[in-house]
Design brief:
Layout lengths: L12 H7 L6 E6 L5 E6 L6 H8 L6 H11 L1
Antiparallel strand pairs: 1-2
Length: 74
């Protein structure tokens, strides 16, 4: 990846997909114990975790429909 003169980089599509990063999401760069910089998706409190999971797995149902389906299975 190249850094622009304004310090911006483009996160490749396969990385955005694997981390579940969507337009408008926030990311954080964190240094780990080995001195490596790690990209993490910032989870904001207002996001519904079920909606996040449903989107990651490309489910075509709402969180309410997913909960109902899960309740039926148990």
């Amino acid at each position: 990846m190249k850094v622009t003169t304004q310090g911006q980089v483009t996160i490749p599509a396969h990385i955005r997909k694997s981390l579940g990063i969507l337009p408008g999401d926030s990311v954080t760069f964190v240094e780990n114990d080995r001195g490596e910089i790690v990209l993490k998706r910032t989870i904001q409190d207002q996001q519904d975790p079920i909606e996040i999971v449903a989107h990651r797995f490309k489910l075509s149902m709402s969180s309410d429909e997913l909960i109902a389906l899960l309740r039926e299975a148990s």
